[in-house]
From TrEMBL:
Record key words, sorted: Membrane, Plasmid, Transmembrane, Transmembrane helix
InterPro entries: Haem_d1_sf, J_dom, Rcc01698_C
Domain Rcc01698-like C-terminal: 797-890
Pfam families: Phage-tail_3, Rcc01698_C
Transmembrane regions listed in the UniProt entry: 368-389, 401-423
Domain annotation Tip attachment protein J: ranges: 529-698
Protein name: Tip attachment protein J domain-containing protein
Length: 1056
């Protein structure tokens, strides 16, 4: 690509030779001959085709493709220089975009971009869809989504120091991979191809050259939670989208283990659990990493996000002397079935231990000991930092035996290390005692400071998603925060002079042989896309930025148009004879006007749009009144805003028409200081003046200068400081990274909400945490591993969670005006309504299993409402009125947003699993399934009403008479003159007699009477069941359904 331009070099060489042969005139002639001969020779060597905007639009994998070079910013498609073998993964038969059982393919490959060095990559498109964008540091949702979509990739900037890529070496062998120095390229490791149908997409990259990238850090989301006597907050399993955070109070404040999904968009409540052994009276190791959600308690118990726990390791931790106090200095790393543990707590001396989570066995103990921190674990090694004085040593240990394999002593000025993550066996990302993120290379032992982290040195977990993106969490005693550290790239630009100077240097010229001092225009981006002479590479810039090149005394000067007139050529100085000794003047001025039909009627300029993702845009300039029918088209790989493109197209057209008038004249040699490109004022015979631009000066060798000039209007050219930002063109939607946050899916196993819902089924609602949530596809599983495509939810509901428990209500079928609850919404809004609308159920909601109406919704903080004025226990859900807790699900019921799914009768009593996949490019991303134990499925009869136990019967005062009234699930409206119809084909009930310890002592099937049922519990049966005088007898009654599902129980009691 960096070929010498024969014409330009020929000009300089010819000029130098000509000068020695014939002085200044020889230099002029020599340069002219040099340009000509060089251009002819260059055209024989290489086909002279200038760069075009569309040259780099399509990704290729061909040998011998030109290597482009980029100035400023430009979008290039690249050329695949290596591709590994595809790796197929059936993924357990998951559903999702690829369909049930569809194989998911990942692949590693390398894409060559352009000549280096570059500064970085700002954006990546796949098949024209934006998938990576770090151009705006304030748009963190886009940055997080970018690194969820494109996880493992490394950008090699193309300098002369880069080393071979480890991914390529693992496939091709060490020593078999060139470092590709001088070539900027990107290596993707295990890129998931399922979003593109398991085919390699056509990738294009926004390459930045000119401004170095910078690291940014930010604390993005915080979960505040505390108890009266302290709380432990941890988030050990992090990914680009955040991670699950755990909070549990200890000592007097323990109220369960709280779990939330902490994301850049906010938090989603997962649930509150009460594991056994309890997490109370324990703390957690704050500094740790896990490859799955969970944390290590101080009691040696591993707690998981579903309330389950692993107690196998307790004895092993006791044997190694695990500290019994709260220990913020302990570190652990869970990798597969192993937990690696050490400490820097107090003045103790600790080893590194490997404990088997499945058996609880202590498998290995390191020979090194001291105050240590685990920096990371890979498939083969464990990396630890052993503090020594003010610094220390990094050790590489064998993962199985914990034997020392290698070590690197850090410089005394490096300080201590408090946290780390092993990206691979070549790169360790660590946090030092100053709170700075550093890169440690095991290849050369270097420690490079990258910048300050989001939490200083108080972070408790860090995970490197890729070399440009690191996720942090910081757990404390009352909150946990999610933070990020990433490499961003600001806008870049260059100047026309810098580009022209580089092109001349590539042609073999030295800085003393050209002058670009006048070319100060800002240039957003330019790319030389193919093999071409420098003359052709300069042509788009010369035409668009209005400058000329002239050769004077061996120096190529680039002269910008639009300058002021330097002098006036007096009419009396014109007409100098070109013949020695001739005392006759020739015609002073010869004026030539190009005929109109040879001039452009219109000019179309095609360029790369700055605000349209570098897509080719075209601006047209027209001359309204003309006899010409000539239309000129120009295609240049220059990045411009649209209004700048229009301005330059108009200027090109005006310049063509203004310069249609040309002048030829001769002067004496006194005017020799002026050069081609200079602007002069030419005086006519009648005193009129013309502003002209010199295009040629020829010395005739006999004392006269022969000039050629064109008419000029300096005011038409833009100022060098002209800088346009511009907006996106009309009709073009600027691409944004798709929503990548979580989906909150609510599954309602409740009685029928409509009279038409008479078959077995469940209700569903979903929402995201941002307005651009695209909807979701819900996949369904009955075993938790094999999923089938279910249904779509395209409209988000108003969903949230309660931040306090809704109080118990025992007031019956009347408004609850005393209770209130605070609701935090993920999206949407709530509003109050009139009393009549309240009674009509227009504000119906689901809160923790109970269906309610609410009247008042008061906004008390962002997305936070206080609700009061309730009708409780609607549609037979009164049993849930006493079971509320912190974190209950809140859902505003809207029949236009709810979805329903029919299920099998046999699903009742089992657990079903549901995965909500986003309806965008992130559809194939792994999600956490929602588990729902199915109990009602719309088939469970409601609990009978007015269940009473009264002493005596018509036969004996020692009997007990029981009675109840049935309730209907559907068509239950109270109509005058008729009873509510029966839901089932027949009416029957199961009546249970229960003793004081909760044991059922008698179960009876009772037939209904059309409106309920009754039963006489005889004195003989009472005695036979072991009840004596003064004892309390409990009863429950449940209606039968046609599908074999027992209804909700109603209960009552009586004292014998």
């Amino acid at each position: 690509m960096a070929q010498m331009v024969v014409s330009a070099v020929g000009a300089v060489v010819g000029g130098v030779i000509g000068f020695y042969a014939g002085g200044p005139s020889g230099a002029v002639y020599g340069a002219e001959i040099g340009w000509t001969l060089g251009a002819v020779a260059g055209s024989f060597l290489i086909h002279q085709h200038g760069p075009q905007p569309g040259d780099l639009r399509v990704q290729d994998s061909a040998y011998g493709r030109p290597i482009p070079f980029v100035y400023g910013m430009y979008r290039v498609a690249g050329n695949i220089i290596w591709a590994g073998q595809p790796v197929a993964d059936t993924g357990g038969g998951k559903g999702g975009k690829s369909g049930p059982g569809q194989t998911k393919v990942s692949m590693s490959f390398a894409v060559g971009l352009c000549e280096g060095p570059i500064n970085g990559i700002r954006r990546i498109w796949a098949n024209g869809k934006l998938i990576y964008d770090v151009s705006n540091p304030s748009n963190f949702q886009a940055i997080s989504g970018s690194n969820q979509m494109v996880t493992n990739f490394v950008v090699y900037v193309g300098d002369e120091n880069q080393n071979p890529d480890p991914t390529m070496e693992s496939a091709l062998g060490v020593g078999n991979v060139p470092p590709y120095r001088g070539l900027a390229y990107v290596v993707f490791t295990g890129l998931d191809l399922s979003p593109w149908g398991n085919y390699l997409p056509s990738l294009s990259f926004e390459v930045v050259q000119g401004i170095a990238p910078a690291y940014y850090s930010a604390s993005q989301s915080t979960w505040n939670y505390h108890t009266d006597d302290g709380t432990v907050m941890v988030a050990t399993c992090l990914h680009a989208g955040g991670g699950e955070a755990f909070g549990n109070g200890y000592f007097l404040g323990y109220d369960g283990l709280h779990v939330v999904n902490l994301t850049p968009d906010g938090l989603v409540n997962v649930g509150t659990f009460h594991p056994s052994p309890s997490a109370a009276l324990t703390s957690a190791h704050a500094c740790g990493y896990s490859d799955e959600p969970g944390f290590l308690g101080q009691n040696g118990v591993w707690y998981m996000d579903d309330g389950l726990c692993n107690t196998n390791m307790q004895s092993a931790f006791v044997s190694i002397g695990m500290p019994t106090l709260v220990s913020w200095e302990d570190t652990f790393n869970k990798s597969g079935d192993d937990i690696f543990y050490t400490s820097s707590y107090g003045a103790g001396v600790y080893h590194v231990w490997r404990i088997d989570m499945l058996t609880g066995a202590l498998r290995a103990t390191s020979t090194i000991s001291g105050s240590m921190v685990i920096l990371g674990v890979t498939a083969s090694y464990v990396y630890v930092f052993l503090a020594v004085g003010s610094s220390g040593t990094i050790y590489r240990l064998n993962r199985t035996t914990l034997a020392v394999v290698a070590s690197w002593a850090l410089a005394p000025t490096s300080g201590t290390l408090v946290l780390g993550h092993a990206y691979n066996d070549y790169r360790l990302y660590v946090l030092n005692g100053l709170g700075h993120v550093c890169l440690f290379s095991t290849q050369d032992g270097s420690l490079t400071d990258l910048g300050g982290g989001p939490f200083g040195n108080t972070a408790t977990t860090m995970v490197t998603i890729n070399p440009n993106f690191i996720v942090f969490s910081r757990g404390g005693v009352d909150n946990i925060a999610l933070g990020y550290f990433w490499l961003g790239q600001a806008d870049s630009f260059t100047t026309v002079g810098a580009v022209v100077a580089d092109l001349c240097t590539r042609a073999g010229l030295t800085s003393a042989q050209y002058d670009v001092s006048q070319l100060t225009d800002n240039l957003r981006g330019y790319c030389v896309t193919n093999h071409s002479a420098t003359r052709n590479n300069l042509a788009p810039l010369m035409a668009s930025y209005f400058f000329d090149a002239c050769d004077v005394e061996g120096l190529i000067r680039f002269v910008r148009r639009g300058g002021a007139s330097l002098a006036t050529v007096s009419y009396s100085d014109l007409g100098s004879s070109t013949t020695v000794g001739d005392d006759q003047n020739i015609t002073p001025i010869t004026e030539t006007i190009t005929q109109e039909i040879d001039l452009p009627r219109s000019l179309a300029l095609t360029y790369s749009g700055m605000n349209s993702d570098y897509n080719p845009n075209t601006q047209r300039a027209f001359r309204n009144v003309t006899h010409s029918n000539r239309d000129v088209v120009m295609n240049y790989p220059i990045v411009m805003a649209d209004d700048e493109g229009l301005m330059r197209a108009q200027t090109m057209l005006w310049s063509a028409w203004i310069s249609r008038k040309s002048f030829s004249f001769t002067t004496r040699i006194a005017y020799l200081p002026f050069e081609p490109g200079d602007v002069l004022t030419l005086q006519g015979a009648s005193g009129q003046t013309y502003t002209i631009r010199i295009v040629r000066c020829q010395y005739d060798g006999q004392g006269s200068l022969i000039w050629t000039a064109v008419f000029e209007e300096p005011d038409i050219y833009p100022s060098p400081s002209y800088n346009v930002q511009g907006g996106a063109p009309a009709g073009f939607s600027t691409q944004q990274i798709d929503y990548s946050g979580p989906t909150s899916l609510v599954v309602l196993d409740v009685p029928p909400l409509r009279d038409s819902d008479t078959s077995a089924g469940l209700y569903f609602a979903a929402c995201g945490l941002a307005p651009n949530w695209p909807g979701c596809l819900v996949d369904v599983s009955r075993d938790g591993s094999t999923y089938a495509q279910g249904f779509y939810i395209t409209t988000g509901s108003v969903i949230g969670y309660t931040s306090n428990a809704l109080p118990t209500f025992a007031g019956g079928n009347q408004p609850d005006e005393l209770s209130s609850v605070t609701v935090v919404l993920y999206s949407g809004a709530l509003s109050s309504l009139s009393y009549s609308d309240f009674l009509a159920g227009l504000n119906a909601a689901y809160i923790g299993g109970e269906l309610v109406y609410f009247r008042n919704a008061t906004l008390i903080a962002a997305n936070t409402y206080q609700l009061n004025g309730f009708m409780r226990g609607r549609v037979g859900t009164e049993a849930a009125m006493s079971t509320h807790a912190f974190g209950d699900v809140f859902l505003l019921l809207d029949q236009t947003k709810l979805q329903q799914m029919a299920i099998n009768n046999t699903d009742v009593g089992s657990t079903m699993y549901f995965e909500p996949h986003l309806l965008n490019v992130f559809m194939t991303q792994q999600v956490t399934p929602v588990k729902e134990p199915v109990n009602s499925a719309r088939m469970q009869p409601l609990s009978p009403a007015l269940f009473k136990a009264l002493p005596g019967s018509t036969a004996s005062t020692s009997d007990i008479t029981l009675s109840w009234i049935r309730r209907a699930r559907v068509n239950a409206s109270w109509l005058n003159g008729t009873d509510v119809p029966l839901d089932e084909s027949s009416e029957s009930y199961t009546l249970n007699v229960i003793n004081s310890v909760g044991a059922v002592v008698r179960s009876i099937t009772v037939s209904g009477n059309g409106s309920g049922g009754s039963y006489v519990y005889s004195a003989a049966n009472i005695s036979a069941d072991g009840f004596t005088s003064g004892m309390v007898i409990w009863f429950s009654v449940q209606q039968h359904s046609d599908q074999g599902v027992l209804g909700v129980a109603a209960g009552t009691s009586i004292t014998r």
